[in-house]
Amino acid sequence: MKSVQTLVKAGFQHGGNNAFKQAPKSLTPEVAAIFNELFDELKAIFPAWGQSGVDAGQIKKTWAKGFVDNSITTKAQVAHGIRKARQSSKPFLPSVGQFCQWCVPTPEEFGLPSVELAFVEAIQKNRFLDTEQWNHEAVYVATRATGVWAFKNQDSHTVRQAFVRNYEIAVRRVMNGEDLTAELPVALPVKVSHPTPKGKALDHLASFRQRFNFRRGLVKSY
Questions:
Q1: Hey, which of 72, 128, 134, 201 has its CA 20 to 30 A from 168?
Q2: Using CA atoms, how far apart are residues 210 and 207, in angstroms rounded to an integer?
Q3: pLDDT digits (tens, 9 = 90+) for 113-167
Q4: Listed residue (104, 112, 110, 100) closest to 140, CA to CA
Q5: Are strands 214-215 and 218-219 parallel, antiparallel or unpaired?
């Protein structure tokens, strides 16, 4: 079995293009095989990690659940988290949520603009998106999927929410080495409720009663 140190040196090469694909909802054998060794490494990085008084076995159980919840499923992801952990100046063991964040690379680490910079570019270039020069194809893909109409007609919060969702999908495809030319999955529409005006509702009710012979809670006998 390869050590965590070896995996850190190998970086993303070990995981290849599959390193950041969506994971099944279970701790994968790939990660389970290095789980104990991971904590040996974390103990060396964070010398004060045991001062919390929490049982080591319970910590491992919690971290295993956290890995599943956050889709940390490959050795390449764990190796990335270890590299980030070594950059921390704190002596205490981070939370499992913090470590899981370290396991996932940012867009910038793959040569893509941050979400904020990408959104600014989308605002500036969405009108003529097919003739503009884009900093990265992923920004173009996310802008196209969001739609010119959305940028023109929707409020800033709504259009940003849609763009961020599309950009995250595009970024994930870049990380996985997938095809960016494929259409992005369409987001489910937000259900909007439009209350019926009181007068119109009463008209509907009267029409319903007349049609089915309802009157004051009584049904016509046949």
A1: 128
A2: 5
A3: 999 999 999 999 999 999 999 999 999 999 999 999 999 999 999 999 999 999 9
A4: 112
A5: antiparallel
Block residue for tokens 């089915």: 212
What dihedral do alpha carbons 166, 172, 178, 183 form, nearest 10°?
A: -10
Return d(Cα 106, Cα 133) in angstroms, integer: 23
Residues 115, 146 contacting (CB under 8 angstroms)? no
pTM listed for this prediction: 0.57
**187: nearest Cα among 146, 156, 151:** 146
Amino acid 215 reads R
Place of tokens 């940028």: 151
Q: Using one digit for the tens of pLDDT, what is the confidence trace for 176-216?
A: 788 888 888 776 554 444 555 656 666 655 665 565 554 54
Strand ranges, E, within the chain = 214-215, 218-219
Phi, psi of 88 (to 5 degrees): -75, 140
* Spatial distance between the Cα atoms of 163 and 186, rounded to a whole number of angstroms: 12
DSSP run (H or E) holding 1:
none
Q: What residues have CB less than 8 Å from 1, skipping those under 6 apart?
A: 33, 34
Report the alpha-carbon distance of residue 220 to residue 213 in Å, rounded: 6
